[in-house]
Amino acid sequence: MLVFSTSDKGGTGRSVTSCNLAYRLCVSGRNVAYVDFDFGSPTAGALFEISSVECGTPQQDGVHSYLLGETGVAARVDVRAVSDRPALRRLGPKAGKLVLFPGDEGGAEFLTADETIVGRCAELLHALEQEFKVVIVDLSAGRSAALELVLRATALPQLRALTARWLIFHRWTRQHILAASGLVHGSHGLVQTGKECGHDPLELLDSVRFIRTAVPQATPLGTVDRPAQAAWLLEQNAALKRLASANRLGASTLLGETPMEPVLHWREQVIMDMDVDAKIADPATALAYTELARRLLDPATWERF
Ligand SMILES: Nc1ncnc2c1ncn2[C@@H]1O[C@H](COP(=O)(O)OP(=O)(O)OP(=O)(O)O)[C@@H](O)[C@H]1O
Ligand SMILES: [Mg+2]
């Protein structure tokens, strides 16, 4: 399965959520690839705490070089072997593979992609789809060249038959809801660009689900003595739900949501059960990632309404 992670805005939690999703799939025994297609800022190595590729690979053999034809094979980094976090190196025999395909250090956004680049992209995605149960591709935000590149690649005959899912990340605010809706449904958005690339728009839309990230509690404990604030928060939450439904981001289009997590507020990382057991991370956060992983693989999630 190919999973494309994108968002209209930057800083939505796209990468942190995707890397936690990858981790949860891996501990449940699935082989997972994480491909860094955030071309302008290839920092996926930092999420998995791999200092040697924190800002992409310094050897210039990452996905940028691969797509440009400067290296025949894209560099792969075995997260379970080289992460600086000891617990990630001790996952045990039941866990699957977890392999990062980093970008190049100093690599930049592609301005356009010619047919050769699209062809190489298709070849890479096809090979990874054969090797891994789930291939998560973290795309640059917005209506980017990365988005168009994978839309063109997945429209090619060799990829058309593969299962592809689109995850759209957004924060739980007015601006983010409108932006996420625009990215999918608006002009030059996913559906329109996909159609121009040869996709069936309805089929493409069926493969799209939204993820709300870092959602604050609508009834935080601190508001017990402040009924006016408590009422205001509840009303805002209800208004956001109405806005989401009106903009086609309602419950039926949702893969799930993640709660505001203090650990992630301070630091981008994988939330492991040991962080919950140590009472550092909230149990609800670990649960949310496990549930996202379950829903992603559950065919019922992707039934047409
Ligand atoms: N559930 C959460 N609770 C609190 N903070 C979170 C949560 N999820 C993500 N964050 C934080 O939000 C910030 C942005 O997240 P992240 O880098 O994943 O976003 P992004 O959409 O990939 O951004 P970019 O466009 O820069 O690549 C990070 O500091 C991250 O740790
Ligand atoms: Mg990111």
TrEMBL record:
Keyword Nucleotide-binding attributed: yes
UniProt xrefs under Gene3D superfamilies: P-loop containing nucleotide triphosphate hydrolases (3.40.50.300)
What does the UniProt keyword field contain? ATP-binding, Nucleotide-binding
What's a single GO CC term here?
A: cytoplasmic side of plasma membrane
Q: Which SUPFAM superfamilies match?
A: P-loop containing nucleoside triphosphate hydrolases
Q: Which GO terms describe its biological process?
A: negative regulation of cell division
Single GO molecular-function term? ATP binding
**Name this polypeptide is given:** CobQ/CobB/MinD/ParA family nucleotide binding protein
Q: Which organism is it from?
A: Nocardia tenerifensis
